[in-house]
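Put briefly, the fold is written as integer tokens. The lines below illustrate.
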Amino acid sequence: MRSLDLGWTTCTALPGCTGSARQPYGRCLAHLDDAELTGVLGGLSPGSPVDLRGTRVEPHLLERILDATRGRPGRTRFDRAVLTGDARFGGVVFGGDATFDHARFHHLASFVDARFTGNVSFRGAGFTRELSLHGVSVAGHAAFDRVSAGRDALFGAAAFGRTVSFEGAELHGFTSFDGARFAGDAVFRGCRFGRAVSFRRAEFGGLAGFEGARFREGGSLTPASAGRGLSLAGAWAGGGLDVAVAGCRVDLRHLRAAGRLAVRLDGAEADLTGATLLGPARIEGRVRSGGNPGRDGNGGRDATARRTVAGYGAARLASPRGPDRTRSPRTPLTSRVTSLRGLDAEALELVRVDLGAGGLTGVHRPERLRLTGCAPAAPRGVRLATRRWPRRRALTSGLALGALGMRRVTVAAPARWLLGPRWAPGGNGPRMNRIMGWLALVTAVTAASLLAGSASHAAHRPVPAPPQKDLPGHSRVTPDAHPRI
């Protein structure tokens, strides 16, 4: 017997065979004769360990092993095994930890409704054709790091009791996690999805991390819940991508979306710092008003004040002609966009979200944005809510001032100075500009008052009498003309 750097004693039947040697034969199960194999399988029972590491497993060998353990093997090892035919583990209950690290499945790999009572690992495993773990149950940790699936991969209705990791996995076919449940964190960092992927109605108890993932044809990330949030930081999407979260945070920092992007927030917040959106994008917040349904299916009609910046920096405000049905006057916005700094969007619409204190600070090409029913973002040092205006008038005026400020940013210098007198008194001018403006006004009033006072004093000053001229026949009387007595 010879020992390779694999962690187990290898088979001596053929040169290069890496199968785990069975004692006392010194050969793997694939190279035992029928009588020897029958003797080995006769000693197996439910809960017995199964060691097929590095072994070439034919379909009939796998079937005989599962029959010997009555579909309930104990500690199971298929590390670096090669399964040449269909590998059917449907309904099998693995009584201990199961490892399939770097195993190769040349045909169908089916684990439908299988149960893993411990941990399971498929690190570096390769699946040439379809992979199905539909309805599988894993009580412990699950690892699918660097897995490669050539065709469709199905994980629908699967239940993972603890953490699960697909870091660096490559899933080339259609991938489905519909209805899957993740009790712990789910890591998809750097995962590559070759076709559409779906997480409809999935439940995440921890963090759903897709940092640096690549969605070649987009997909649907619309889980029923995401306990600690959803992260798409640094991800790339080539096709349409739908995202929906409720009551948590969605991290879209440095996301690159080449196609359509739709994000729906329900009492959640989104961070779009440094995101690049090349296709049409929409970030929409849901408002629970408890009534007043409308035709748009989002709690009311879209008859609301809109701010649009387009063309030559023009800002147009469509004042509502009736009550604001997009959002109940007494219902505050529960969804927020925490940051848009560094955002570069081709066409982005923000609907019913609170822009927070940051507002539109640092946005590239702000003329590409369209806001509908959003809370006006007050610049630093300005509190728009202190004015006791009617709600409709406050909303309209706030959006008008915001649009005017946006217009000043985008127009040329001469027009910008002309818009200054309209913009600064409205509370949207920078603090230093307002201070300088007030100082100039006080100086002008003081100077005018001084000039007016000087003119009034000069008007009451006595006018000196003109000098007298000598008349013919009269002499000028002077003190020296009379002699002293």
User: Anything to note?
Assistant: Helices lie at 34-42, 59-68, 391-410, 413-423, 431-459. DSSP finds five helices and 43 strands in the chain. Residues 313 and 412 are 9 Å apart (CA to CA).
